[in-house]
Amino acid sequence: MAAKSSLLRALPAVILLHALSVVHSQHFRGGTLQWKKVEGNRVAFLFSATFKRIYGGFSGTGEQGYPGRGDQVTLSGQEPILFYPGISATERGRAIVLTVTSVDIEQDTFQGFWTAEIEFPGPSSMGMPWRSRVAGHLIYLSVSA
Q: Rounded to an integer, what distance in angstroms lies between the CA atom of residue 84 and that of residue 87?
């Protein structure tokens, strides 16, 4: 019963930034990973985040070729930021394409969101909650559903 009630409320994201290199982590400013039950074993995820615009991996229709409002930005690079539903230990990460919702030229940042719906094979993983995550170079956000 507790597992079912936990599916009905969104859990705050656990943000764990690895402090391996301050320089390399400067493009990621912060973010959240949230979920909500849709129907049956189907769960909707929402990842929202803020990044520095000047990071070399991002381009778009904004000023000087940086991401602009409405652009679709793929979080790629040497170590791309990927979404792992947590269904299988051997699953491959799924690409995240943010829709840019705002740009702050003064702070040199952009903010965006990404959504996905995942059908899980059951209400739990052998009695334990599913552990979905967003992970990549110096970023790790995790939720239990």
A: 8
pLDDT at 8 (0 to 100)? 35
- How confident is the model over 88-102, as pLDDT tens digits? 878 889 989 999 999
| Residue 49 near residue 98 (C-beta atoms within 8 A) | yes
* Mean pLDDT computed over every residue of the chain: 78
Q: Give the DSSP letter of residue 120.
A: -
Residue of 127, 136, 75 lying closest to 144 (CA atoms)? 127
Q: Which residues contact 1 (CB under 8 A, 6 or more apart)?
A: none
pTM to 2 decimals? 0.75
Q: Read off the tokens for 80.
A: 């791309």
Residue 132, helix vs strand vs coil: strand
| pLDDT tens by residue, 26-55 | 478 888 999 999 999 999 999 999 988 877
Please spell the DSSP secondary structure of 54-88, one letter per residue: TSTT---SSGGG---TT-EEE--SSS--EEE-SS-
Contact 75, 81 (CB under 8 A): yes
